[in-house]
Design brief:
mainly alpha, 12 helices, 0% strand
């Protein structure tokens, strides 16, 4: 509960107790527990310890979903250290681990992304029932990886890679139905439309993302979306609206954001 509530210091204390109890009982901590410890360390800014812990997870498991999530977190650590080359290497490994083609700026990737976007626009999926939770989790991880790739591509000034990651993820997000992936998919699409100069369409998808986010009741996701709303409204020329969004973020959701973003 402490971990889910982002009370990371307390969560690390509980994790230490769990690890000590496992040692007394002669039980090897599960890779999932080691992953949670590493993520909590990352959240508290202990990047070197966190990366070492994630490497430990990779040595303990062959589960493709957990391997992909671990490489994704390692990529975030390299990104935080401004090592974008290694961040892309780790992120590509995450895509490969889960059997997905990583986004690139190549011509074939761009054409496939446009085709995927065209199929999404013409025949949008409204979610479906999954045969297993593993299938659903796999799609959720793929959506998260595309979101991470789009953000990293924007920071690295790689517009084609950003385009590919954004357009490819829309179909994946729609298949999941109302979810965090769909909220982020609409947000990324709104961001892309704004970059292309289509402000009205971008704001329309931003409102769609916000409506869906409110229905999900996820405070962390709401805080993240408010932060992006502030940026997008400023780009659209609505400075007063951007300031109001920033005030709402700080007053209502500031404690759900990272310290640097706050």
């Amino acid at each position: 509960f402490a971990f889910q509530s982002f009370d990371n210091e307390r969560a690390l204390g509980f994790f230490d107790v769990a690890a000590s109890a496992a040692a007394v009982l002669g039980i090897e901590p599960s890779p999932e527990l080691e992953f949670s410890i590493a993520e909590a360390q990352f959240r508290t800014g202990a990047l070197a310890r966190s990366r070492k812990q994630f490497q430990k997870v990779l040595s303990q498991t062959n589960d493709p979903i957990l391997v992909a999530k671990t490489h994704s977190q390692v990529a975030k650590i390299y990104e935080a250290n401004f090592n974008t080359e290694k961040a892309w290497t780790s992120l590509d490994r995450a895509f490969h681990a889960i059997g997905e083609r990583p986004p690139t700026g190549s011509l074939i990737s761009v054409l496939l992304a446009i085709l995927a976007w065209f199929c999404w626009a013409i025949l949008p999926s409204r979610g479906h029932k999954f045969d297993s939770t593993e299938e659903q989790t796999r799609l959720e991880v793929i959506g998260a990886l595309h979101h991470q790739a789009a953000r990293l591509a924007f920071q690295c000034a790689e517009p084609l890679r950003h385009l590919v990651a954004t357009l490819t993820s829309l179909g994946v997000a729609e298949r999941l139905g109302p979810s965090q992936a769909l909220v982020l998919g609409y947000q990324r699409y709104a961001f892309l439309l704004m970059l292309l100069g289509m402000k009205s369409a971008g704001l329309r998808y931003l409102r769609r993302a916000e409506g869906l986010c409110n229905s999900l009741g996820d405070p962390v996701l709401k805080a993240y979306l408010l932060q992006l709303r502030c940026v997008l409204l400023a780009w659209a020329g609505d400075i007063k609206g951007a300031i109001r969004a920033g005030e709402q973020l700080l007053d209502e959701c500031g404690h759900w954001r990272e310290l640097s973003e706050y």
